[in-house]
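Progress note, project year one: complex with pyridoxal-5'-phosphate.
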Amino acid sequence: MSYISEKMLGYVKRASWIRKMFEEGARLKQRYGPENVYDFSLGNPHLEPPKEFFETLKEEIEHSFPHVHGYMPNAGFPEVRETVAEYLTKEHKLRFSASDIVMTCGAAGGLNVVLKALLNPQEEVIVPAPYFVEYNFYIDNHGGKIKVVPTTEDFNLDIEAFARALNKRTKAIILNSPNNPTGQIYSEESLRDLATLLEKHTQNYATTVYLIMDEPYKKLVYDNYQVPSIFNIYQNTILVTSFSKDLSLAGERIGYLAVHPQIGNKEALLETIVLANRILGFVNAPALMQRAIKHLLSISVDINAYKKNRDLLCSKLKELGFSFLLPKGAFYVFPKTPIADDVEFVQVLQQERILAVPGSGFGGPGHFRLAFCVEERVIKNAMPSFEKVAKKFGLV
Ligand SMILES: Cc1ncc(COP(=O)(O)O)c(C=O)c1O
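Model obtained:
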């Protein structure tokens, strides 16, 4: 027997290539200077939070009240949950109440809370690929099994693949739209088809399949695309979101989850979610951040900055012969690699001082992910390196 969890040791070992990649990136930055290494590897927003965030923080600190830094109900401050409920009521034209909302430590905290509340051992969670790699761990954290299904050529939902994957052990589906890593927004039509399929499945198996909608990029959309309102499509939906991306508050660990007002088994579900938030060790979402975001629900960072980056990077990649879906939202692009081995291709990019992530890490081999939440100059300075790589593989 090992002194440390064998499962965790296994995870560390399997993730070693990612660590090696980051170590190599750090080595390159040391050797050539950070300004000469073009780091597109992380989804950590480069924009500062909007000025309203700092103004609100100041005001909240000045207008303190007793026990403001103490424990609170595990679901969060009632007045903050009420404000979120009002916001969602307007957005979805569906009456939410404060009890439908639980404040969380980011979307990651929210996803873990929901999965802990839902899963019995070995129950399955279907995830369309490519997907946010952490879902593997979150599902396993709570004894579930991930079942990965493919998407269509343009990364939209493949309903037949869901039909093949559903069975009596299916407990939930996790969808992330706008998507990390593809930038796709799942179409309303495909979501409706999925909802119809799930409703039929529910009748056949006398069970409930919950749809967990992971939407931290919902406000980061381009070209007037709209993210369809999932609450108006499927009743057994739990929305999970955060302010990490749209307010650049990733380090502050603040988000919320919301259940559909008519969700199945609502009372028991909410009780278990709130208990999960407590016993997973989150206890409650950060107090000061809850008070701040109460005033910031409808604002975001300047999306034009990301759009400008997207257009600059994507027009260059296109000119160089790379093929990809133009991202409709989020701040990632997921081009095809010119060779089958995406890990090898990312190593070639590294030789030209470009840091990217292989698609295999997202269940999307044969692709690489570039995060364009970076200073504009990083994109501009990287262009000669992209050109060199494109020439090397005969793309131009
Ligand atoms: C799809 C997706 N879901 C969840 C998260 C977790 O974000 P948070 O900082 O809100 O926990 C991320 C972070 O990159 C993400 O890309």
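The longest strand covers residues 170-176.
Residues 43, 106-108, 132, 176, 180, 214, 216, 242, 244, 250, 255 surround pyridoxal-5'-phosphate (CB under 6 Å).
No further modelling is planned for this target in the current period.
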